[in-house]
């Protein structure tokens, strides 16, 4: 704890040119008093006494406001004033969420002896996220004499070099950035060492000076004079055995004895929701927040701000210079406003410290410096590579950049040089090596490309390249390896967006645009970006002159996208019918299959299972023409689903068993929909429902658990949501399982915000049904299919729509429950005779369907209202006795309790 009494030492404390005198409560800089308020002085005194250690905020507030309770905002105001008073060096460093420290060495009067070093090194601000790197650098110099820090502009090479130099006993820090003539490198070094330059080659004098001790020579910003500096470094190291050199450059010196240490950007949080506390575990966030607090005393990172701050850090690639410049703009624009304007506004990232070199005051200036050092071929390739939005291979770089004026070999050489000069980041995933432009570099290079006459040809090459990537993704598709496919091919979605934007620009090839929209369906569906894809499909279908084949494929994709993202909608049957007409005209069997399959699914969503069964049977001649066993199996799944929904459960289970016995069900289906619903899980949904209805409640739950495990393992969002909504939640309700709430939450979490509107609505319906069973109001549900499910979850939720459809024969599976629900309503109204007649009818119908679970419910209701009927009691007892499983479920427990 910090002392709060007046017994503290009176000796002066010295740091970064300042002298602090506790007894006189004065701070001097070069014998000139620094005006500080009383509380600012107490805070500075506490930080100086800590000698670089972090002082918690609570202790600082106790020191400055002894005996008082104050808000943290008061401390931030005092810190901001203190930083301003101490000058531009930013001596007060903050550790987000913890406290503050003095970012410089503190000496007492007895040990305040001068050391020859870079004056800026003493006052270097806190280096967030560089602790391991500094330790590594220290270890390197135990074995190496020449280390080069390499990295892109703005990554913090100079700051790291200064911090390392600050710990050395004898240091000479030489900034070569202003050197216009490489031949003057030795003279510049001599001047920095305080040596007179008496000849055109002062190297011998430099050697004599450095040979006398253990010197650390820091050569900063070598990239524009790299060849000369490399030769000078080799010469000095050979002549001075105790000399060590630390160089900073955007590319290696490539000289003898060099050890290259690449400086990476600061780690930023991945995409997704996170709290402020979680975000502050990442150094990029720590730096952004620290600098924002320094620039704006009122800034605090909240949980609501954390995802925006994380996105900002990712878009700035974790570059410290960009983060510091962004932090200075937060007060003016706010976090969201700043993030929204960064897509092409390099001018926003300006306003660095006035004491910094001009190229360190804006990102654009830093990039201008790098660009000026490139050869003409390297500039051409850098500009061309700006069309890529994400990682790309060397082959892709050649495909886009090479042309009449630039050979493939020249492109490959340029890519190598751009990587060496830190303008391209290298990424390795397993055996695959890719390159990537940092976002700020990409924006800069894109501006250069836009001003070039080569821009249209580069964009066209990129679009053709993207078409090839999509073709490869479609060829590789396998639903059994969904996650592996997504990891390899999902990353190209930003390239697809860029290619589509260019294809739809004025004067481009209409057919190429339509083909690109149609061909990219698998990516949009598997990444669940359906709302965005619907927009592209609508634009594609509006193109005049697109081929019938492209329009056919776009109609199919649009119908599937709309049904998943928006549910029942007039566009769905319209688009499937349009697809079918085009497919029949072109004799395209695959799209005939897709269209009729889709019409069957749309009828099933409307809960018109008789119509859906008709469409499923209509597929028979199409299946015969395909000659595909896979298509035949998918048709049988449709038949199984519709027969189950019409109340023919034994037949449905036979079809399920037949389909699941086929090994080819695991492979990709050439005749399946764009949704790529996993066929095994889809069959298990039907199986679980039919098993429960036929009285096998425990096996039903086991099948549900197996389907959920499989869906989670393949990481297919459509499949998992389908299993949860169509089987897991209903079966848990029917059985009375306690984990139904967990399953509902899982469905909601999976579907909300992912364009899975249909499944999101199911989650809301199930949640409302659970609240109703706990005493809440009835659910407000209008979807007919959901009304059927709710009637079986709780007979009190029986709707007139379900009753009328059961009577019309469009649905059958819930008809016994519809009769029982009518009976309960009649009993509540006092018409016991009519009620019992409904219960008996429900029991008979359930027996006809083989729905033992619903027959048990009907018999239980009948005995509840005719408790003295021995025949009814005996029948119910027999039903309970015949059960081989499910004895702990809600319905069985109720029947046993009634019999007892």
Would you kindly provide a written description of the structure presented here, covering whatever features stand out?
The protein has 900 residues and is an alpha/beta fold. Among the domains are: 13-108, Arc Repressor Mutant, subunit A, CATH 1.10.10.10; 119-262, Rossmann fold (3-Layer(aba) Sandwich), CATH 3.40.50; 276-358; 374-452, Arc Repressor Mutant, subunit A; 453-564, Alpha Horseshoe (Serine Threonine Protein Phosphatase 5, Tetratricopeptide repeat). Helix content is 59%, strand content 7%. The strands form four sheets. A five-stranded antiparallel beta sheet has the order 4-3-2-1-8, with helices on one face. A hairpin with a 3-residue loop joins β6 (92-95) and β7 (99-102). α26 runs antiparallel to α27 (571-586), α39 (815-828) packs antiparallel against α40 (832-849) and α41 packs antiparallel against α42 (870-881). The radius of gyration is 37 Å and the shape is elongated. Mean pLDDT is 84; it is low at 1-10, 110-125, 351-361 and 666-673. Residues 10-104 bind DNA.
């Amino acid at each position: 704890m910090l002392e709060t009494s007046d017994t503290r030492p009176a000796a002066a404390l010295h740091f970064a040119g300042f002298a602090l005198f506790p007894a006189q409560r004065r701070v001097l800089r070069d014998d000139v008093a620094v005006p500080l308020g009383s509380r600012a002085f107490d805070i500075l005194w506490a930080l100086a006494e800590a000698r670089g250690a972090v002082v918690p905020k609570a202790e600082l507030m106790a020191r400055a406001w002894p005996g008082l309770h104050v808000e943290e905002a008061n401390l931030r105001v005092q810190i901001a004033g203190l930083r301003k008073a101490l000058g531009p060096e930013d001596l007060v460093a903050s550790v987000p969420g913890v406290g503050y420290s003095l970012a410089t060495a503190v000496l007492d009067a007895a040990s305040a002896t001068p050391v020859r070093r870079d004056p800026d090194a003493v006052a270097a601000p806190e280096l967030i996220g560089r602790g391991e790197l500094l330790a590594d650098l220290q270890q390197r110099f135990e074995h190496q004499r020449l280390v080069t820090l390499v990295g892109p502009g703005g990554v913090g090479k100079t700051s790291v070099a200064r911090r390392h130099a600050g710990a050395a006993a004898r240091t000479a820090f030489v900034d070569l950035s202003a050197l216009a003539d490489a031949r003057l490198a030795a003279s510049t070094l001599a001047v920095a060492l305080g040596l007179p330059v008496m000849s055109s080659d002062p190297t011998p004098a430099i050697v004599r000076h450095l040979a006398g001790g253990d010197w650390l020579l820091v050569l900063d910003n070598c990239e524009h004079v790299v060849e000369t500096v490399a030769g000078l470094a080799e010469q000095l190291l050979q002549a001075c055995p105790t000399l060590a050199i630390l160089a900073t450059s955007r590319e290696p010196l490539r000289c003898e004895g060099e050890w290259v240490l690449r400086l990476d950007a600061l780690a930023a949080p991945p995409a997704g929701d996170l709290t402020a506390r979680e975000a502050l575990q990442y150094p990029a966030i720590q730096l952004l927040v620290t600098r924002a607090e320094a620039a704006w005393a009122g800034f605090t990172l909240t949980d609501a701000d954390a995802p925006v701050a994380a996105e900002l850090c990712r878009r700035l690639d974790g570059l410290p210079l960009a983060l510091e410049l962004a932090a200075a703009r937060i007060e003016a624009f706010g976090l969201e406003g700043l993030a929204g304007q960064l897509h092409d506004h390099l001018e926003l990232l300006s306003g660095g410290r006035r004491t910094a070199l001009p190229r360190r005051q804006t990102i654009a200036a830093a990039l201008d410096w790098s660009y000026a050092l490139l050869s003409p071929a390297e500039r051409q390739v850098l500009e061309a590579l700006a069309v890529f939005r994400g990682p790309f291979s060397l082959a892709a770089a050649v495909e886009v950049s090479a042309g009449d004026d630039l050979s493939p070999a020249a492109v490959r050489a340029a890519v190598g040089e751009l990587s060496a000069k830190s303008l391209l980041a290298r990424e390795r995933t397993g055996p695959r090596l890719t390159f990537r432009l940092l976002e700020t570099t990409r924006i800069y290079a894109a501006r250069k490309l836009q001003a070039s006459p080569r821009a249209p040809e580069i964009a066209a090459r990129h679009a053709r390249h993207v078409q090839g990537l999509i073709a490869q993704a479609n060829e590789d598709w396998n639903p059994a390896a969904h996650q592996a496919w997504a990891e390899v091919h999902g990353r190209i979605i930003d390239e697809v967006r860029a290619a589509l934007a260019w294809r739809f620009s004025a004067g481009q090839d209409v057919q190429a645009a339509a083909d690109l929209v149609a061909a990219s369906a698998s990516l949009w569906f598997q990444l669940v970006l359906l709302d965005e894809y619907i927009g592209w499909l609508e634009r594609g279908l509006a193109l005049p002159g697109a081929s019938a084949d492209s329009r056919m494929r776009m109609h199919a994709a649009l119908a599937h996208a709309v049904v998943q993202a928006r549910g029942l909608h007039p566009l769905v049957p319209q688009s499937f019918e349009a697809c079918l007409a085009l497919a029949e005209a072109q004799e395209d069997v695959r799209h005939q299959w897709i269209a009729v399959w889709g019409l069957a699914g749309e009828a099933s969503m409307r809960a018109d299972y008789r119509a859906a069964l008709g469409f499923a049977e209509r597929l028979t001649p199409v299946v015969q023409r395909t000659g595909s066993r896979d298509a035949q199996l998918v048709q049988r799944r449709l038949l199984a689903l519709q027969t189950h929904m019409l109340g023919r459960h034994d037949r449905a289970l036979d079809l399920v068993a037949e389909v699941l016995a086929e090994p080819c069900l695991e492979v990709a289906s050439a005749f399946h929909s764009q949704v790529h619903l996993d066929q095994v899980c889809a069959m298990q949904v039907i199986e679980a429902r039919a098993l429960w209805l036929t009285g096998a409640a425990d096996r039903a739950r086991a099948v549900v658990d197996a389907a959920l495990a499989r869906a989670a393992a393949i990481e297919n969002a459509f499949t998992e949501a389908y299993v949860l909504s169509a089987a897991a939640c209903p079966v848990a309700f029917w059985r009375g399982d306690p984990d139904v709430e967990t399953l509902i939450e899982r469905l909601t979490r999976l579907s909300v915000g992912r364009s899975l509107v249909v499944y999101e609505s199911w989650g809301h319906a199930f949640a409302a049904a659970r609240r109703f069973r706990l005493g809440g109001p009835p659910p407000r549900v209008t979807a007919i299919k959901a009304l059927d499910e709710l009637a079986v979850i709780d007979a009190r939720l029986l709707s007139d729509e379900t009753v009328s459809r059961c009577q019309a024969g469009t649905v059958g599976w819930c008809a016994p429950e519809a009769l029982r629900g009518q009976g309960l309503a009649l009993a509540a109204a006092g018409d016991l005779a009519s009620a019992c007649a409904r219960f008996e009818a429900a029991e008979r119908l359930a027996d006809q369907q083989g729905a033992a679970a619903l027959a048990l419910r009907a018999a239980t209701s009948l005995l509840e209202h005719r408790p003295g009927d021995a025949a009814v009691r005996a029948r119910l007892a027999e039903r309970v006795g015949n059960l081989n499983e499910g004895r702990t479920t809600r319905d069985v427990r109720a029947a046993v309790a009634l019999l007892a």
